[in-house]
Specification:
2 copies of one chain form a homodimer.
Chain A: H1 11-21, H2 25-28, E1 39-40, H3 51-68, H4 80-92, E2 99-102, H5 105-119, E3 125-129, H6 134-146, E4 152-156, H7 167-173, E5 178-184, H8 196-205, E6 209-213, E7 232-235, E8 249-253, H9 255-258, H10 297-310, H11 315-337, E9 343-344, E10 356-360, H12 364-374, E11 377-378, E12 380-382, E13 386-390, H13 398-414
Parallel strand pairs in A: 1-11, 3-4, 3-5, 5-6, 6-7
Antiparallel strand pairs in A: 2-8, 7-8, 9-10, 10-13, 12-13
Helix pairs in contact in A: 1-13, 3-10, 4-10, 5-6, 7-8, 11-13
């Protein structure tokens, strides 16, 4: 394994050595890094800017929009949601023709959930978990409200401090009355990885459909959507896919069910022949029926520029580096932070952990502020006490991890966080 | 009136003179025009690229995304949907706090229609017209399907060749059972302007709500959404607002009804406190409840760059130029095209006409192809026989109108269109 030499006891020199041995280290050079001292632990919230994005967008804006004008739709724009979608598909184990890059994650989740409930009219339970991203739960609540409140939302709880859930715990909540199991593949706080294959299998056994949210796993954790026979998945392109703030999201609909499900939002790009301008809606064949409005070309171009760099790296190499980074971080946590009142909020087992690690502290919110304001460390704070540290395989270095932990320790030892307010800000 | 000198009988020299007298002519210089010979009659489908957009985006991408990274959300991004929305509001007669720039027109229309039907549970008719943009009808069909097919969609027909509809004709279709009247302010083929004020008044008389689609009027035709007490409106930013291909759209919800309606799509940006991560959805106060996912910052920035140029011009000046352009085009149609088998597909009365003019010809589809391929004229073709000529007040010149008509005439006189296929292409 390329990263076997990363040992926490070797100090900062060990991190320097690890970076010099890291086969993915050159990728960091392909991103804009204006402040080399900044420790950016938030690539899982907003990925860094690839250097090529600006040039690519400049070409799309000046050559395509500026010069081709409306003719751009005939020369590449029209296919962009599929083309970009297929590139995302190559990262998540989806063959061509099943992924669209479009809309926001919320809107795509709404489409998938509504389509799933519509396809299981006789079943009245929806299973998710209490650690799911709240926005996902809101969408489930919205869909249930639309269907006349005839469904019950059952939220499975975690049984341990690392916020993991066994497939058995999910399976215990699934019955023949379950229409849908909707979970985040990697949970947003603890970074726990669900056993997507096993849960999908168990859901299918009783006739339920599954919708997986891949926002925290796409581009960080390998998966086989086709191989595991997943029904629907959605995800975000501004985290590990480095597509830019508020980048278009994606939706996956398995080829096996495409003909049997429809989007709730019938827009012209989801119509069989958009430019025939028929007055009655007929859904397009295939994945296209999950399109709605006109594709956002500028934003899609930024996503595509990043994917063209990321896809050739391969998920195996990305995952290997990701595990090395989180293992290293946890080793440093043990030696530098555990004694300072922190507890680990993520699984110790690398196989159950995505590409972020949460460390918990009763004064976590104040520590988070001190790190940003005084230490050039940018974590994310997640209620009630999580410092969420995102490690982005293509851009996070081992030295960055070392420096980050070192500065977290220095902050807590010096007690500089005590001067920051304990109240939550509106936006973190 | 600034444009009184534009006389069709004065020939091309008259057009040159008109441009030299046009107070808005300098705005054309603020757009990228790589081929001065190109006659672009499609600014109502995809508006031209403002020169400042590239610089503005470059700043957002390199300075904000590249350098501020996640901190951008605290320094301008978070408010972008409202900030850009309020700028759009200033063009459509909406005071601050009622417009969001977000999602696509289709998604926003879906939100508005679903919210309206939900707010009128005892009423079971939806009124629109047969000339409406099909995508709008699809959304109505989708919403009705969701509500269990308990609503009837009533489509008013036009009674004349110019495809106009009187307020009386709409009013005749509205009853006390009408939940919603949903129309395009300016229709996409003929460019007919509905009497929004009168129809809204008549709908309210019987307790119906209104949703207006402003895609073909925002930035081209003045209106007073607040003054006319409109309930909902949606529209597109890639036409007369020059926001770029597939730009984010907008949604208007009148302050008077905001507390009584909710979006069907409950995403975290529509939640009262998105970063409290409550498990249960509580809609935000005010217009925010119609947000769903994370705002698309790159795309919103392109819209904002354009609006910052367009808003100060003022809708009065824009409308004056727009009328002068369409009047001039119709005069040239009368003198140059009417005798060649064309008929006018748009209202002759300027008060009833938006900023595009359709001219109809049995071989319109072939003529359209010949113009694009051989004449450097880009119209839009709309089934079954419309050459739709969009005149964008800030970018279309009078010489462009003259040259365009001159080349249409030359094409038809020479018969070069006969060699083009009569079958419809997939994308026009």
């Amino acid at each position: 394994m390329a990263y076997s030499a990363v040992r926490s006891e070797a100090g900062r020199a060990g991190a320097v050595l690890a970076d010099s041995n890291d086969p993915l280290a050159p990728y960091r050079e392909l991103f804009v890094i204006t402040d080399p001292e900044l420790v950016y632990f938030d690539g899982n919230s907003l990925g860094r800017l690839p250097k090529k994005t600006m040039n690519h967008l400049q070409n799309v804006i000046q050559q395509e929009w500026g010069t081709q004008l409306i003719r751009g739709w005939g020369t590449g724009w029209y296919d962009a949601p599929h083309r970009v979608g297929d590139k995302i598909g190559s990262l998540i184990g989806a063959a061509a023709g099943q992924v669209l890059a479009c809309d926001s994650t919320s809107v795509n989740l709404y489409k998938a959930v509504m389509a799933a409930l519509h396809a299981r009219p006789g079943k009245h339970t929806v299973v998710s978990d209490a650690m799911n991203f709240p926005s996902d739960l809101y969408i489930l609540q919205a869909a249930i409200t639309h269907y006349g409140n005839t469904h019950t939302l059952r939220l499975v709880q975690s049984h341990d401090a690392e916020l993991t859930v066994t497939p058995d715990a999910i399976a215990a909540a699934i019955t023949t009355d379950t229409a849908l199991v909707c979970l985040s593949h990697v949970t947003f706080k603890s970074g726990f990885i669900y056993d997507m294959q096993e849960i999908t299998r168990r859901a299918h056994e009783v006739g339920a459909l599954v919708v997986w949210d891949l926002s925290h796993s796409a581009g960080a954790v390998p998966m086989q959507l086709d191989g595991w026979n997943v029904d629907f998945a959605v995800g975000c392109c501004y985290k590990f896919l480095n597509g830019g703030p508020g980048a278009p999201a994606f939706i996956y609909v398995n080829k096996n069910i495409q003909a049997h499900v429809t989007s709730p939002i019938w827009g012209w790009f989801g119509q069989k022949s958009p430019f025939a301008f028929d007055i009655d809606y007929t859904p397009a064949d295939g994945i296209d029926r999950f399109l709605a409005g006109t594709p956002p070309m500028l934003a899609l171009s930024a996503v595509e520029a990043s994917l063209d760099m990321l896809v050739p790296v391969g998920m195996h190499a990305i995952r290997e580096k990701s595990i090395a980074l989180t293992e290293y971080l946890i080793a440093l946590y043990d030696s530098h932070l555990a004694e300072l009142g922190f507890s680990l909020g993520s699984p110790r087992d690398a196989a159950k952990r995505g590409s972020h690690v949460s460390i918990r502290h009763p004064l976590g919110y104040q520590i988070n502020q001190a790190l940003i304001a005084e230490q050039k460390v940018i974590p994310d704070f997640r209620e009630p006490d999580n410092l969420r540290l995102g490690l982005s395989p293509l851009t996070t270095s081992f030295v960055e991890v070392w420096d980050g932990v070192d500065r977290i320790r220095a902050t807590v030892v010096a007690g500089t966080h005590h001067k920051y307010p304990a109240a939550r800000k509106a936006v973190t």
